Amino acid sequence: VKSEGPKLVPFFKATCVYFVLWLPTSSPSWFSALIKCLPIFCLWVFLLAHGINFLVSHRSASRILAGLIFSAVGDAFLIWQEQGYFIHGLLMFGITHILYSSAFGMKPLDLKAGLLMGIVSSSCYAFLYSYLSGPFTYLVAVYIALIGFMGWRAMAGVQLCNDLWTWTKLSACVGAMLFMVSDLTIALNEFCFPVPYSRLIIMATYYAAQMLIALSAVETRDEEDFRKRS
Length: 230
Prior knowledge:
Blueprint: H1 9-21, H2 30-48, H3 52-57, H4 59-79, H5 86-104, H6 111-129, H7 136-156, H8 167-192, H9 198-216, H10 219-229
Helix pairs in contact: 1-2, 2-4, 2-9, 4-5, 4-9, 5-7, 6-7, 7-8, 8-9
């Protein structure tokens, strides 16, 4: 963790800039899009700092980088969501969750975690359903399925009972849960009712989630270094 901390300093600074400027969402602009996306750009740099060869040779890391790229595009679309780009943002983040799920992998399977995540996802959609109309009725269902699947794969990697876990797997799990909290807050605020301090909750949990998921990409390097020391 200590070795990765300095590489995240630009991310923390960019996040502080976003919260200090706190640009009004009612006035979308390319500048506000840049400020919102800047912390995600810094996470690109964080992963690239590990070397191009590392990203090329480790598919999970390269898929997380690709997910961050689609996230930034989704963030930009959501700046103009009132102009009709909300669905575009939804699509970009849907692709992000597919990439993250692929990065986390299908082993171990952990069907209990899958069942738990299925119940949580179904309950969330059941609550939202009565507020949805038109294409959002099925688009939100697909999106919840994708983020729920991503959460399952992240959760499955943390085998606490068997001591088969690492700090990076735990990072991925916590990051996925925070991502779900962020997106659920968006859904409640967008379709159901105004959520107090919604923007603060959404962005704080979102940036933390992306940072933790980016951190999980360094696991392959940790394992590689361990094998060399052994």
